[in-house]
């Protein structure tokens, strides 16, 4: 369950916590509003934050999505809560992002540790959009990924000595050794930052959209991709309904 946290001015002089169930994009969630007086002492503020924390824990909520400008983000993160992210959405759309942002469709590089559903989806998209695909992965994963795209007429190649003339690269995992990429290469990185990825340009200028009918239950001021990620991961929305928007 997802917790949506926002703050607003209080009508009176007391802090208050309001909670209501909601389901943005079909994701079960609770919308929690902290009403804050214009002037309030630190002790009363701490007590109100404690009440909100207790309400979240009673609801079994560990993952939080903060409203734009929510002033107490660090308090909740320091208390063991996790900020919602869009990693699952990035993973399921990684191949599509790489193809969408790459002006050239010559070669794509894919680095993975295992041939899971995300990797299979990515290699299929890359094989459909690029002339060549290079794989950096264990042999057992390479065999499964190669078999997955054999129907597309693609024959992925293993990474050579660390230099890849790739137009796009998707890293689900760090490479086993330094990989040198040309400046034109668009990089979609789902692994932690690493000096083993040399060159290229990380994909940044893109966003996600969904049909308007899907957006009606999302409260204003919350980060859409984080909710979308949860919705896609839980099967509330098929990944095909999420479109990539590239910005110039």
Give me the count of strands.
Answer: 13
- Give the N-to-C terminal Cα separation: 36 Å
Mean pLDDT: 91
Query: Helix and strand string, N-terminal first?
Result: EEEHEHEHEHEHEEEEEHHE
Structural classification: alpha/beta
Report the total helices.
7
Low-confidence stretches: none
Which sequence of strands runs across the widest sheet?
Answer: 8-7-6-9-10-11
Any chance you could write out the topology, listing elements then pairs?
Blueprint: E1 2-9, E2 16-22, E3 29-36, H1 42-58, E4 63-66, H2 73-77, E5 82-83, H3 87-101, E6 107-111, H4 117-129, E7 132-136, H5 139-148, E8 157-158, E9 168-171, E10 179-189, E11 197-202, E12 206-209, H6 212-215, H7 224-233, E13 243-246
Parallel strand pairs: 1-3, 1-4, 4-5, 6-7, 6-9, 7-8, 9-10, 10-11
Antiparallel strand pairs: 2-3, 12-13
Helix pairs in contact: 3-4, 3-7
Characteristics of this structure?
248 residues; alpha/beta; 6-stranded parallel β-sheet; 7 helices; 28% strand
Notes on the structure:
The chain is about 30% helix and about 30% strand. The chain has about 250 residues and is of the alpha/beta class. Helix 4 (about 115-130) links the parallel strand 6 and strand 7. A six-stranded parallel β-sheet has the order 8-7-6-9-10-11, covered by helices on one side. A five-stranded mixed β-sheet has the order 2-3-1-4-5. It has helices spanning about 40-60, 75, 85-100, 115-130, 140-150, 210-215, 225-235; strands at about 1-10, 15-20, 30-35, 65, 80-85, 105-110, 130-135, 155-160, 170, 180-190, 195-200, 205-210, 245. It has seven helices and 13 strands. The mean pLDDT is about 90. The longest helix has 17 residues, at about 40-60. The two termini are about 35 Å apart.
């Amino acid at each position: 369950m997802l917790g949506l946290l926002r703050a607003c001015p209080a009508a009176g002089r007391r802090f208050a916590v309001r909670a209501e169930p909601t389901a943005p994009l079909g994701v079960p969630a609770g919308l929690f509003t902290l009403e804050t007086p214009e002037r309030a002492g630190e002790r009363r503020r701490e007590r109100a934050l404690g009440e909100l924390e207790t309400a979240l824990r009673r609801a079994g909520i560990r993952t939080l999505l903060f409203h734009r400008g929510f002033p107490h983000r660090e308090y909740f993160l320091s208390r063991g809560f996790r900020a919602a992210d869009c990693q699952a959405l990035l993973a399921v759309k990684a191949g599509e992002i790489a193809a969408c942002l790459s002006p050239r469709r010559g070669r794509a590089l894919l680095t993975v540790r295992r041939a899971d559903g995300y990797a299979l989806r990515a290699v299929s998209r890359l094989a459909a959009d690029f002339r060549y695909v290079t794989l950096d992965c264990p042999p057992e994963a390479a065999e499964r990924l190669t078999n997955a795209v054999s129907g597309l007429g693609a024959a992925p190649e293993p990474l050579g000595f660390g230099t890849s003339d790739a137009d796009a690269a998707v890293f689900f995992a760090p490479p086993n050794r330094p990989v040198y990429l040309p400046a034109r290469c668009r990089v979609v990185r789902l692994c932690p930052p690493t000096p083993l990825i040399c060159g290229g340009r990380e994909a940044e200028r893109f966003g996600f959209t969904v049909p308007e009918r899907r957006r009606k239950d999302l409260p204003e001021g919350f980060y859409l991709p984080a909710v979308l990620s949860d919705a896609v991961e839980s099967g509330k929305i098929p990944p095909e309904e999420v479109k990539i928007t590239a910005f110039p």
